[in-house]
Amino acid sequence: MKKIVLALLTVVMASVFVACGPSALEIKEMSSDCEFNVEIRYVPDDSIAILMGNALYVATSQLVSGNLYPLSISTRSDIDSRAPTDVVNSDEEFAAYINRRIPGVMNFGIVVDDNSANEIGFEKETAVKMFQDFFKKSYPGAKSVYFSSRNGELVSAKKLD
C-alpha cells in the first residue's frame, strides 16, 4: 500500500512540475536574451512586415499560404514613418537582410499573439515551424524561443530545438 501511495505521489509531483511553465520573470529573461524577434499578429488589411529595431512584425495574412516568400519588409524607425519596401524571395536573401541590420545575431524569438486566431486559414504551428526551420538552416547553432502573447504581454515561453 505504501508503494502505491508513494508512486501516486511521485506521479502527481511530476505532473505539477511539468505543468508549471516558466514564471513571468523567467519569460522576461528569455525574451531579453533574444537578439532578434519575429512577432506574428493579426493586422487587418496589412501585407507588409515592418522591421523596427530588432523586431520584425509580420501580419498573419503574409503567412496564410504556408510560404514565407515573397516577404515584403519595410524598415522603419517608428511605426508611423514611411519607408521603402524590400521584397525578400529566399532564405539567403532573408538572412542577408537580417545580417545587414543586426550582425552576428544568434538568439531568436518567435512571438505569436493570441489575436492571430482571427486570421482565417492561419496555422500558428506552421508559422512557428517556418521561422524555426529558417533560423536552424540559416544560423547553425542558433537558439530559438517560442513565446505566446496576449494583448501585447508575453504569457508563455518554450525553448525550441
UniProtKB/TrEMBL annotation:
Residues 1-18 form the signal peptide. Keywords: Signal. The keyword Signal applies. This is Lipoprotein. It comes from Hallerella succinigenes.
